[in-house]
Amino acid sequence: MISDALKASTGKVIKMENQFYVDSDHLSKEALARKHQLETDASSRTNHMEYLPGMEQIQSDIRERVMSQTEQYDYTVYTSADVSAALEHEQCSIEDFKALLSPAAGPFLEQMAQRARVETRKHFGNTVYLFTPLYIANYCENYCVYCGFNCYNHIKRMRLTMEQIEHEMKIIADSGMEEILLLTGESRGMSDVSYIGEACKLARKYFRMVGLEIYPVNTDEYRYLHECGADYVTVFQETYDSDKYETLHLAGHKRVWPYRFEAQERALMGGMRGVAFSALLGLSDFRKDALATALHAYFLQRKYPQAEISLSCPRLRPIVNNDKINPLDVHEKQLCQIICAYRIFLPFAGITVSSRESAEFRNGIIKIAATKVSAGVSTGIGDHESKYTGKESGSAEGDEQFEINDRRSFETMYQDIESEGLQPVLNDYLYV
Amino acid sequence: MDKRLEDDKLVIGGQEFHSRFILGSGKYSMKLIEAAVRDAGAEIITLAVRRANTKEQENIIDYIPRNVTLLPNTSGARDAREAVRIARLARELGCGNFVKIEIMRDTKYLLPDNYETVKATEILAKEGFIVMPYMYPDLNAARDLANAGAAAVMPLAAPIGSNKGLATKDFIQILINEIELPVIVDAGIGRPSQACEAMEMGAAAIMANTALATAGDLPLMAAAFRQAIEAGRKAYLSGLGRVLTRGASASDPLTGFLHD
Amino acid sequence: MVMINGNSVDADGMTITEYLQQAQYDPRIVVVERNEEIVPRDSYQETKLADGDVIEVVTFMGGG
Questions:
Q1: What ipTM does this complex have?
Q2: Burial class (CB in 10 A: 0-12, 13-18, 19+), A211
Q3: pLDDT the model gives residue A1
Q4: Which of A133, A288, B103, B169 is the most buried (most CB within 10 A)?
Q5: Distance from CA of C38 to the nearest CA of B (A)
Q6: Confidence at B38, pLDDT banded by 50, 70, 90
Q7: Shortest CB distance from B57 goes to which of C23, C26, C60?
Q8: Domains of chain C from N-terminus onward
Q9: B250 touches chain A (CB under 8 A)
Q10: Which domain holds residue A152?
C-alpha cells in the first residue's frame, strides 16, 4: 500500500515526507502559538548540540568515530562485486558492512539471509528469547513530532501507582513471562529516577530479567537503577543525523542529541550488564542510520568488551491522532537487508524485532537473524488486564505510544516459535 | 621496495616505518648483522641487555647501521620488577625509548607471563617508554596491554626458537580483529611462507631471529623473509579473493515472506 | 667487599671511574647500576663503592 503511494504513474519513486504536525483542539491559544513557532521558526529552538545543566559530559571518542564514518559513507559507490566479496569474507569488516547496507546489496538479499542464518545459529543456536514491555507512565515533556506521547498530542495521560504496577506485573508474570522491559514517557518531572527505581525493585520480585527504556540519565543514576534491579538499558537514538534530529525533536531534554548518544556508555559505566541501540527507521536516511547504529554498538563493544550488546530495528508506525505516519522507503525488504547486515557484521549481538512488525514478518525473521521478540504487547498504560483477559479493567487506562502490528499473546507466540522448529527461551540469565 | 607500498607505513609510538620485518640479533655473529639488516631491509633490530665482560672492546651497536631503530628486550626478566629494571638500564645505554618487554617464569617452554607483562607495561608506558610487549595471544591480556599504554602487541606464533610456525593462528587472528594496535607476530616463525601467511591475515609486522640464525646462509634467508613479508602485506592490502567451497548447496529460500 | 656482576671484588672506597678503568671496561658501552639504582654517567667520578654494595655493569649484546 505504501509502495503504491510512493510510486508515481511514471513508475519512478518520488521523495515523500511524513506529515507529522497535528494540532489539537484541546491546546490553549498560547500553547498552539508556541507549538507553531517551534515548528516553523528554527531560531526559536534551543541548540540541540549543547548539554543542558545537570547533564553529565563524559570523555569519549566514540561519537567522533561513529560520526566520521557515517558522514563519509557514500552507499552509491558500492557495486555487486563489493557485495559478493563481503559475503565471501569470513570476518565482515566495516567496509564489507557498508557494502551490505548499500543499494547494490538489494539483489543479494537471499544470499545475505542464508549467511545471516548461519551466523545466528553459530552464536545463538536455535533459540529465540521472549520478553514483554510494560509502560508505566506516558507523561512526556518533549515535542518529538512523530511520537504519540509528545507533549502537544492530546492523549489520555497516566502514571501508574506502585500498586497498579504490581497488579500489571502479576498479570504478566502469570502468563509465564520471565523478562520485562519497563518503559516510561520521557518526563523527569512525572516519572523521576526514584519512581523508576521503585518500579525496578518490584519488577525484580516477579521477573528474572529487568530492562529499562526510559529517558537518558547520568552515570550515578544508572548505577542506582542497576542497584534497584535493572540490568540492561535501551536507548533509541532515533536518528544519527543530528541536523535531521533537530527538526524532529523540537523541544525538551530529548532535544540534546549528544547526551542521548552517550547514554549507553554511561549505563555501562554505571554497571549495567547490557545496552541496546537503535535508529527509528524512516526518520532519515535509513542506510546511514543503520550504519551509525551498528558502529555505535561496535565501537562501544570494543571499549567495554564485557557488555552485552543488542540492536533493535523499529520502523515508524502510525500514532494516536496521526494514522498517516509510515516508514517511507524502508519496506520489508530494506528492513530485512538491514537486519541481515547487522547480523553478518555483529554476529554476537542480540537483535530484537518488536510488535511494530507483522506476525508474518516476525515469523520469517526469527528464522534468519532476530534473536528476541516481544509478545503480549501493549504500548498503552495500565491495560494488561483488559488485553490479557478480555475483562474490563474497571480503572483508567492511558493511550498508546504507537500502533502495534503483531498482537499475538505470549502463549500464541511461544507455540508459533516452536512450530517453526525453534526453541523459545524465557531466560538464560543468572542475576549477579 | 615495491612503489605501491611506499605510502603503507607501520606506525609504532608515533614513529613511522616502511619495513614490516623486525630483525633479532641473537645467536649469530655480530659481523653478520650489517648484511642481515641490509638484506632484510629491516628498520628495527632487537638487542638484549647483559652483564658486560671486562676487556670487551667490541660493541654490537657499532655493527648496526645508524638509521636502524634499536629495540632492546628485557629477556632474563622473571617478573615485572626485573623487566622495569632492565628497560631502564637499556634506556641509559642510549638507545632511545623503545623497549620490548619479555618476561618468562618458565625456563622449559620460555612462554611469556602475560600477567607480569601487563604490570611492566603500565609502569614503563608511564615513564615514557614506547612499549612493545611480547605475549601469549590472549584477547583479555591484549586488551589490558592496550589499556596499560602498549604501542603494539607481539603475540607468539609458537614457542621461541621452535620454528613451528603459526601454531596460535586462530588466536592471533582474534587479536588482529579486535585490538587497535599493531599486532606483530613474534617467536616461532620458522619459514618465510609462515611469515607471509601471518601478513596475509593482517599482522602489522613479523619479528624473526632463530629462523635466520639457524639458516645455512643468513643474509639470503633475511632476503627471503623480506620478500615473503612484503608479499603477504600486498595480499592483505589487495583483499584476498574468494575461496570456492565445494558442495555448497542453496537451501530453501528464507526471504519469500517479504512484502514490498 | 663489593658484589660486582655476581663476583665478590675488593673495590671498597674506589670510585666507579677508577673501578671501570682497573677492570678494563669500555666506559662508552656500559651502564652501571648500584643497589638497583642506575648511576648517572656524569657521577661515576664522585660515586665511591662501599662494602656491601651490589653493582651491575651491563651492556648490549645480540638478542631476539
A1: 0.89
A2: buried
A3: 41
A4: B103
A5: 7
A6: very high
A7: C26
A8: 2-59 (3.10.20.30)
A9: yes
A10: 60-69+117-425
